[in-house]
């Protein structure tokens, strides 16, 4: 099995090293194409206004001046010679990618690009403990290989990726896993902090507040909050079908002009 791994934390990220060790337990045919700099929050963005430059670090490792989507696209189409990968692994992200955050995640986007190229793809993210620990990716390194193996044996439809989130907890002992649906937070965690530089000009840092929500049973948020590994099948179709059906009753055919109907 040929595996391509990428991430959004960058080529030097600790989580990427963890993913390389995970992939090595599954195959000896592993390639790395990852961004030269951190691309967190890049989502599915492409680099279209400047050229992309690939730096060959070793025979099977490349750093790219682009996004996770760029990395997977160029990795599959140009940088990896011979057959294309059988599996794309994206991560291991520093911090969870749950609920509505998946639409902004570069980690999830790397898996989506693999899916778009016809390759089975999995995004992996690791929750971080509140205090520093020696091995923050121990849970994902311990349990990811077995979960990936089981997912590949089970299979899943084309057009779908797997989003796997590991809780911040010690890896020892039994660990529960749950197949979940994407949740939605009932609190707003994203905010902008205003600061002033030494010349008196304002600037802003975007970040997140650690405010827990009250998620429903069966969601990725609930499983993660309760210390279980969450496995969520995701697809790129964002259509809200019940609203489609409702609107078809009032809109269709000849386009209305302002003031007509209603």
What key attributes describe this structure?
globular; 9-stranded mixed sheet; alpha/beta
General description of the model:
The protein is α/β, with parallel strands linked by helices and 262 residues long. The protein is 25% helix and 26% strand. β9 (190-196) and β10 (202-208) form a beta hairpin. α1 packs across α4 (138-154).
N to C succession of SSEs:
EHEEEHEHEHEEEEHEH
Provide the spatial order of strands within the biggest beta sheet.
3-4-2-1-5-6-7-11-8
State the distance separating the first and last CA atoms: 59 Å
Structural class: alpha/beta
The number of E-state strands comes to 11
Strand content: 25-35%
The residue ranges in which pLDDT falls below 50 over 5 or more consecutive positions are none
Mean pLDDT: 95
Form type: globular
What's the alpha carbon Rg, rounded to whole Å? 20 Å
Number of helices: 6
Characterize the biggest β-sheet.
9 strands, mixed
Specify the helix fraction band: 10-25%
